[in-house]
Amino acid sequence: MPINKLHILVLVASICSTTTALNANSSLFGDDLKDDHTVVLQLQIQLNELGFDAGPTDGAWGRRTAGALDAFYERFPPAAPFSQASQLIDRLQLVHDSWFASPFGPNSDLITPPSSLISNQVFRSDIRYQELSCNDCSVVTFAFGSGDFDGDGVDELVVGQHLVDQNRVAVNEATRTLIIKFDANGENRELVLAGDTPHVSRVHEREAVIADFNSDGVDDLFIAATGVDGPVFYGEQNVLILSSPDGPIDVSFANLPIINDNAHGADAGDIDGDGDIDIVVSTHGSTEKYDSYVLWNDGTGNFRRQILLDLVDDPSLLQLYVNGRSANQYSTMKLADLNGDQFPELLLLSCCQYPASMAQNYNSYALINDQNGAFLAEDKIVFITDRWRNYTFANDADVHDLDGNGLVDVILTQSTQSDFWNGHYLQILMQEEPDLFVDRTAERLWDQGYEIPIELLAFADQSTLIDLDGDGDSDLLTTSSAPAMRSSQLSEAIVQIGINDGAGKFSPLDPRWVSHEGGFSFIGPVVGRFGPNGELMIASHRIYGSYSAERNVTYGVNFYLHRLR
User: For 35-164, where are the alpha helices, taking DSSP H only?
Assistant: First the structure.
């Protein structure tokens, strides 16, 4: 297996738990193995590639090799302590393969359904229909999620459109946020909002949150808007669309604080237990210097802002501006009940994008909700998410009890930065005891050593757990900016869907099946009840435009609906 020094260990541990201390296990290696140059060399290569410092790859057993092996054992503990060195060697191989081996190798448990996927083109977006000053710009399309905003039992698809110039540099011009409505009669179209604003437009919508904010039983929509994500970081007004008797209506400037805050992420939950849905917003450094904050809901969808620094017992984790410089930037923040007390914890997801000497945080954290609307950093849970060292982004976290032990587990979706935003990695952290999360990615997911060069692998954005095949358990869908396949070859494919075996172990769904063995399709898959009677379907897209050796321009995308069952 080739050495790739960009790849580094991802682990998870709980800083507040010291239960079940397993013995350090380089001691399992007798003199016969320590003197075996081939065995020791392979150990050193694999440990170093996983981020454990085993020293020079010279095949000579020493203190650093033994220490790296012990550290690996503690980070990736087996279900029961090992008694033989061969067990530890096999486990190291398993974890190493989960990082570097192809998911499509000879031992893959790739699932290829016997029948063809039913797919239909249903809508085309085209940026040229909007009145824009940037005539030579391309559009980058992101599918954010789905919700039933008009209460008719069929979900709409929420889509962001970002303008970039010929050098792929973001353009400071607002474009329309698409809310695509699927009709039973096939007349699919944009949803027109009630009131004076039929459509909303923003510069760089970043993340959508879909929940019932005004307590009327119909989905509402909040969008964290960034603005141009580069100097001078002017920021942008966030979006709020609420249901009303006349249909969904834009109340962004009436019910939200009017601030250009450079929001990079958001999530919703009842933080203070008062029965309505609040919002947490993660910000990055901007001209106006807005710290991350909570939007407190009054129960009707009117929101009041309070900075998060006021709501944690250790503000140092969240101080965005330290000595005049940006610090503690998080890719996004999530709200999830990890301990079963009905109050959501605050998950801070890593956003490392600087050289090692400048990075403020390699880790992701969960801050415990004190059941009064504040968060306790003193007992925080640490998720070490440095898959690509100090260039790792944890873009999303979803929680679900995968193994049925009554404790929710965490699935993290991660990417990195090459010349653009790239990379596709999922991590499964099993809560094996209360507040003790253990990395079981190697046991529960397919190998993720994709052969596509990292600079050609667009980033994975979010993952959703939902029953796709109708067997009663939750399958795994990852929304990625990359196509299922770049060509007809599996060497240029990624896994976007994992099928649950019923016990929380996922097998990859064949990307040739979802893409009909074609290249550059099945981009940004989003699940929703898009069928004419609210049946579960998947929406994806394929870009279209004008492409030549002289000039490439992307006008929009073609959207498809796929019926899995």
Answer: 37-49, 63-75, 85-100
